[in-house]
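Why run this: before we spend reagent on co-expression, it is cheaper to look at a predicted model of the complex and decide which construct boundaries make sense. The entries below are exactly what would go into the expression plan.
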Amino acid sequence: MSRGGRTRHVGLPRWLFGPALLAAVFVVLPVVAMTTRIAWGDFFSLVSSEAARSALWLSLRTSTASTLLCLVLGIPLATVLARSEARWLGVLRSLVLLPLVLPPVVGGIALLSAFGRQGLLGSELEALGIRIAFSTVAVVLAQTFVSLPFLVVSLEGALRTAGERYDVVAASLGARPTTVLRRVTLPLVLPGLASGAVLAFARSLGEFGATITFAGSLEGTTRTLPLLIYNLRVTDADAAVAMSLVLVAVAVLVIGLVRPRGAL
Amino acid sequence: MSALVDVTVTERDVDVSFEVADGETVALLGPNGAGKSTTLSVLGGLLRPDAGRIVLDGEELTGPGTWVAPHARRTALLAQDPLLFPHLSVLENVAFGPRSTGTGRRAARAAAEHWLAEVDAAELAGRRPAQLSGGQAQRVAVARALAADPRLLLLDEPMAALDVAVAPALRTLLRRVLADRTAVIVTHHVLDALLLADRVVVVEGGRVAEQGPTSEVLSRPRSAFAARFAGLNLVSGVATPDGVRRPDGLLLHGTAATGDHPPPGSPAVAVFRPSAVAVHREPPGGSPRNALAVVVTELEPLGDVVRVRAGELAADVTVASVAELGLAPGSDATFVVKATEVDVYAQ
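The model came back. Tokens follow.
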């Protein structure tokens, strides 16, 4: 378990290294191949175009917003799932995982059905003067919808591993439930919480299907980086590849942030 | 601050009732699974009993229609593991209780420093729990529990996870801090009971088997567990004019060492020390009054003697005798004890 542990007591079967190497190559090769397709001469003008900068900025803003929303909603949900013993929570746990297995496009359609103008809450929201679909808010909601399970699963696992023993001691020392949560429970699962948040951010950054279905692809408002790349793919392949590299760079940066914790 | 406990936990078949007087330390003794930890959980408010009540210092904590949350009970828990919060320094750990109950930062810090000094751990204040040895961590845990100013201190085998080398120091520390405190301690160690507890409550099978002042229970036990705990042999049955008759008909001769011989026909116990037992391979001649045919079940070195166990009974013999007699688990043997060594009293 220790991070610095170098001793291995049981040898690995040699044949394991073949498929392991194949898997690594399978992941890395396409990304490397993409860099060979880049027109380096135009690279900087391509990635610094008005459309590119606005898409990158929108992506970073919406992903940050959806990560915060995931934290605000996900921490309570994960805590309830990890600590409460009610039977029906088993069902809830499965339902929360739904966005993980749903095709994102289906997620987008579901969001439209709930928050779209013709949707379940559409008329109520309309009456309040709120229009969500095809706005930046819709982008954030779509990203939150698909990212929330990553945070919840990661945090719930960390909470279960940490156990309740410290919480019990804290309560016996006179700490109210809120104090226990704030000063003991959450600080103890900080690595799990951080890796969950980074995963949620990465998932939000790459979100495409639910966004394009629920929010559309309006430049400056809802056209995030993945949507821009998809658009450019047909009209300007060089620019699409260049922007892809930008997205890869951001993703690598995000992985670099979370990897040293080893809590993925 | 006195405590009154009378609770039933149906699921775990626990139904116990005892009292803790103001400033008194009560040891809960009993075999594993007897209900000691369940009782402690109920006291701390971690487990809701099916029936009964707990009254602490006149305030009902648990009862029909009453339920005080664990954090509001002021019943600090000291567990087997120190469970210091790993993300806080030693000082912050000890200040946790006062801070949580609304004490200001500076006052909480002062209280923490006071209690750290009280357990001789002032120099550890700036360390992280990971930088402490097991004994140091448990001392800090004691300071943390005391800093919370508990009305009732709950100790769940606080020495069990410690090295034998450091346990005596912590026991001495606990003896000092528990001196005028109301506390309940669960323990498996006879020294804990002797040095820390004013009274013991023996729990067996979820019921109180016996209770009383520590010295009385350990010197004149009435339950099989307390006898084993005190290192004494106990045979229970009904009193006869000259001893105690076991349910299987065997009569153990003995006399009341103090007080009156229990009236014949009443439940009584015959108690004798393992060192008073002589072990023979063949039934000895001269028809001694107390000769018990037994099968050796276990041999256990104990200082300069060997404790020969035969089921519930034990005899202490020298190493040389064990070799001479060729004793081993499974051997047939006869335990002989003089009637004058057998104390008889009512159960």
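DSSP finds nine helices and 22 strands in chain B. The interface with chain A takes residues 44, 46, 69-77, 79, 81, 83, 85-87, 96-97, 100-101, 144-145, 148, 154 of chain B (CB under 8 Å). Bring this page to Monday's planning discussion.
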